Amino acid sequence: MTDHNGQWDWNRILLFLLEHVLQKIATIRPPTYILGEEIPGWRWEQNRSFSTKSAYEFLSTSEDLGVDFNWSKIWSLKLRQHVKVFTWLAAHDRLLSNAERFLRHLSTSDRCPFCQSNSETTDHILRHCSTVVANWIVVIEPNRISEFFQLLFNSWLQVNIIGGHQFAKNKDNWGERFVVYIWMLWKNRCSRIFNEDFIQRGDFRLLCDKLFEENVTV
């Protein structure tokens, strides 16, 4: 399932597998004899060897989402399960962004492949990339745009999912609609990277509203 350059042949793989499986495959380097045998290593040390010092530093500086984030609200959203799982991954900063791939030594750069101006974090993909800002401006109240973009990422997610209708032009079911919006932004990002023939057709807001109708549950 690799192409003539030794990379995953996404044009073939996309035909047979679900999105969550594709995301897992994307974290794995294609098989090659040149790189030799793969050996697991500790990601927080340059020599890839475990140390209690680096483990303590990581744990002491990590954000405790379990305290601040209302997990029950995510799982109670009236959306299909795979959309809620995506939201959980985004809140934990576990989407396979270039920043994450760079940390895993799966990429030589953490830069955004589209704007090239910043590290491609989850926040960058879903909110700050120049290719997505215009999509948010369409659906956010003009007098709240500045606040919408200035909130810390975890606060931004929580406020909009739990009760951020003050930001939205269309306030009906905003928590669910917001989740569908960020899900759509992620899907677009992956399609643009893995499908060279991808073209965004139609109004982004209307496409998201259609997805919302398709994925909302009762």
Automatic annotation (TrEMBL):
Q: Give all residue intervals belonging to the Reverse transcriptase zinc-binding domain.
A: 50-136
InterPro entries, alphabetized? RVT-Znf
Official protein name in the record: Reverse transcriptase zinc-binding domain-containing protein
Organism of origin: Hibiscus sabdariffa (roselle)
